[in-house]
């Protein structure tokens, strides 16, 4: 009998054991009132790490304060309570810790601890299967999953929590460059191993660039760091203090240009009251999905073409200490920022020659010893290097979301929509795959709500 002849059964299959999948499992265990069998599929050996929380390095900080990172919508201080309970920061006061940005690795520890507790107290049973799901065939009664080993599973309900795929380096022949010369920013140990006297280039100037820069600095890098990106905008810093107090509701019905104009006005008002512009972003933060959905398709396209980069640096901010460290390196000249589009990378005598063209044409090629791909999350469904996503699209079980971003899902229930726009009632999606539908669907404040909703529907 081959592996594919064996078909195992479960009530709920969760595909992906990063933060989002673990949040779904946690909520399903808490909500189950009978002996359900929940299977969580994750190829990595550790749960809850995914991409963001897999870093072991203390300089990689959360970009959301501790007080807002609870896994549980009904217990907003739960992450804070966990850090206090394990005495992760001896001597730090509760209030100071709530406003602080903790090392990201602690967040995976927290989710693992809460999952274990929920499993011990639940009527349901959680089975972790360390394998990737390569295929999903939704059916009226049962959903069939195929694992990389060929093993088959039948599930009553499925939640897809496949998370983030990295964009490939945007140059032809990138995959043929010598191993060790091109490192992904999410290879946290690999980046640190590049530290030394040689010059390096980082492609991309967002959050993953900041991760790489602080890792290199903390590993004692002495060479120059060239940061190349089309807009060369660096992430901006958080600021202490709360949200502004204006009523954000009228923004929802406004077209894009008016929204942006009114927001700039609120930022000026905030400044007049001695508040930083960040207070305005905090005020509209909970409305991210409504702001996106309130734009018509043409305005969403305009936003993606003209405003998204400016939006991203204001919305996805970094801890002040990370920002300060990047800033010091730039002021010292060790970090050099280039507004340029990458063309080719050549290998010459063991070094890389990076060719690009600047906004105004000319750009002298850079000689570097290695290159870091920090181009970030791939949001276009058809370009995602996840075999399951590609199988769902190829078989018509899914279609790209609005503007080709992520997979299309129903707004209310997060159900996967097929090629004809029909929902699969037993297949729900959480997290970044919903970006086209919701836009704000990446960070824990959104994921914990989606996970609770998906788990409730699945165990009902
Ligand atoms: C570098 C970085 C830092 C971040 N920092 C923060 C932060 O401080 N605060 C915050 O709120 N958000 C942060 N985010 C946003 C982050 O995306 C979410 O908080 C969260 O980590 C997303 O978890 P996820 O499970 O959806 O995705 P991922 O972390 O990408 O995990 C997805 C998991 O699914 C598995 N998987 C994928 N496909 C399959 C398959 N076919 N079969 C089985 N398993 C599969 C993968 O192996 C992976 O473990 C950060 C994101 C990044 C990239």
TrEMBL record:
<protein>
    <submittedName>
        <fullName>FAD/NAD(P)-binding protein</fullName>
    </submittedName>
</protein>
<dbReference type="Pfam" id="PF13454">
    <property type="entry name" value="NAD_binding_9"/>
</dbReference>
<dbReference type="InterPro" id="IPR036188">
    <property type="entry name" value="FAD/NAD-bd_sf"/>
</dbReference>
<dbReference type="InterPro" id="IPR052189">
    <property type="entry name" value="L-asp_N-monooxygenase_NS-form"/>
</dbReference>
<dbReference type="InterPro" id="IPR038732">
    <property type="entry name" value="HpyO/CreE_NAD-binding"/>
</dbReference>
<feature type="domain" description="FAD-dependent urate hydroxylase HpyO/Asp monooxygenase CreE-like FAD/NAD(P)-binding">
    <location>
        <begin position="13"/>
        <end position="164"/>
    </location>
</feature>
């Amino acid at each position: 009998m081959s592996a594919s002849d064996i078909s195992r059964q479960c009530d709920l299959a969760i595909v992906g054991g990063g933060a989002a999948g673990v949040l779904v499992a946690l909520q399903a265990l808490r909500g189950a009132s009978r002996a359900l069998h929940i299977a969580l599929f994750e190829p990595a050996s550790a749960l809850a790490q995914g991409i963001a929380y897999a870093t072991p390095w203390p300089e990689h900080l959360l970009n959301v304060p501790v007080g807002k990172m609870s896994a549980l919508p009904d217990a907003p201080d739960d992450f804070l309570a966990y850090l206090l309970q394990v005495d992760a920061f001896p001597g730090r006061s509760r209030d100071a810790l709530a406003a602080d940005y903790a090392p990201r690795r602690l967040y995976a520890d927290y989710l693992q601890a809460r999952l274990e507790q929920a499993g011990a107290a639940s009527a349901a049973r959680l089975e972790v299967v360390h394998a990737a799901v390569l295929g999903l065939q939704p059916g009226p009664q049962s959903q069939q999953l195929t694992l990389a080993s060929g093993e088959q599973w039948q599930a009553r309900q499925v939640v897809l929590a496949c998370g983030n795929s990295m964009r490939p380096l945007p140059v032809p022949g990138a995959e043929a460059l010598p191993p060790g010369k091109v490192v992904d920013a999410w290879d946290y140990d690999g980046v640190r191993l590049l530290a030394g006297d040689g010059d390096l280039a980082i492609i991309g100037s967002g959050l993953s660039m900041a991760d790489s820069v602080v890792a290199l600095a903390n590993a004692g890098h002495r060479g120059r760091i060239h940061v190349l990106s089309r807009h060369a905008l660096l992430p901006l810093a958080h600021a202490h203090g709360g949200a502004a107090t204006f009523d954000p509701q009228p923004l929802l019905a406004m077209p894009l240009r008016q929204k942006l104009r009114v927001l700039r006005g609120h930022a000026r008002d905030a400044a007049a009251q001695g508040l930083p512009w960040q207070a305005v972003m905090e005020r509209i933060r909970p409305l991210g999905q409504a702001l996106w959905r309130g734009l018509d398709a043409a305005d969403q396209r305009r936003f993606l073409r003209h405003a998204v980069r400016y939006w991203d640096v204001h919305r996805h901010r970094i801890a002040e200490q990370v920002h300060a460290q990047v800033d010091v390196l730039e002021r010292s000249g060790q970090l050099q920022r280039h507004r340029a589009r990458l063309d080719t990378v050549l290998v010459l005598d063991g070094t890389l020659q990076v060719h690009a063209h600047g906004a105004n044409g000319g750009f002298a090629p850079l000689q570097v010893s290695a290159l870091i791909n920090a181009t970030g999350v791939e949001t276009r469904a058809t370009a995602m290097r996840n075999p399951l996503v590609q199988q769902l699209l190829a078989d018509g079980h899914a279609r790209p979301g609005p503007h080709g971003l992520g997979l299309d899902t129903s707004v209310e229930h997060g159900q996967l929509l097929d090629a004809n726009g029909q929902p699969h009632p037993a297949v729900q999606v959480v997290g970044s795959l919903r970006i086209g539908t919701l836009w704000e669907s990446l960070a824990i404040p959104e994921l914990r709500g989606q996970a609770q909703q998906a788990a409730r529907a699945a165990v009902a």
